[in-house]
Hints:
The protein is of the alpha+beta class. The protein folds into 2 domains: about 140 residues, no CATH class; about 170 residues, 2-Layer Sandwich (Alpha-D-Glucose-1,6-Bisphosphate, Chain A, domain 4), CATH 3.30.530. Helices cover about 50% and strands about 20% of the residues. It has 8 helices and 7 strands, in the order αααααβααββββββα. Strands 1-7-6-5-4-3-2 form a 7-stranded antiparallel β-sheet, covered by helices on one side. Helix 1 runs antiparallel to helix 2, helix 1 runs parallel beside helix 5 and helix 2 packs across helix 3. The chain is elongated and about 75 Å long.
Amino acid sequence: MRAPRRTGRWITSSKWASAAAGTVLTAIVAVAFVAFGVDALGSYGWGLFVGAPFALGIVSALVFAYAEPRSRSACAAAGAASVVVASIALIGVAQEGAICLLMALPLTLPLGALGGVVGYALQRRPFQSAGTPQVLCSLVLLVPLVMGTESAARREPPLVAVRTSVVVDAPRAAVWRHVVSFPQLAPPQELLFRVGIAYPVGARIEGTGVGAIRRCRFSTGDFVEPITVWDAPRLLRFDVASQPAPMRELSPYGIHPPHLDGFLRSVRGQFLLRQLPDGRTLLEGTTWYRNRMWPSRYWQLWSDALIHRIHLRVLRHVKELAEAEGADRRPSAYAPLQ
């Protein structure tokens, strides 16, 4: 059996050895990218979530194919593997938590594979062996340049509205009482809340009318919500003066990465109650927010879905309380949340 041909200190023609060398190198580069982009620049943007995984895929494929040509599918797999290994490395060095990295994988994993395909194309060029070190250096320098340019621009993220509604089999006045404040909710059953995403626990009101302070208690702290519109029993609108972290990151180190502070920012919210002809009430909750993580369209998919689940947890609780009150005719009787 022919032994792998040695081409350098750490790259051989062995398929597995060269793949391991590529993923280890890209893991080191990934930690450096995140340290620069997040810790130094305070940015979660295109350079981090698009440029970095694409570059890691190219670097991994070029190292993988340095000793001898590899197939397109093998290079794509090497590029995707580089993203997975880099994600594990970021958790291991306490740079990031698992939740954010798992959310990013549907974006970063295909980009890593695409970078691997580009690396496959580069390996077929006549100057590949001589040009590989220069290509690697160019990629390593280009991504921080993109990050720096993006950080200097500091674009304002769009204001996004998420609306969720339920129909309550109770009159509007009964529903209103439980919108303004409500007792503690039962522990969540949804997996996303149980693994660390912040979820509502209860709400109380200090005062009445415009200027009252509503405090919506979450698993990570309180939303402080000054009331701006008090149109009982139709509309309750409020600003968000302060808010807790949107999640507790999954990490063996108990970390608090920068994206937990101010990157997902609620601006205001409201509850709108519409009386239906049959005596029921359409209860609609709306949250307006900004998300400073880019690309905004991608992260909006996640934030919209999570806010919608939070809305449903509250609206279903209000629905159950109001319907139980109507059935028992006892305002203090609360049925447990199922």
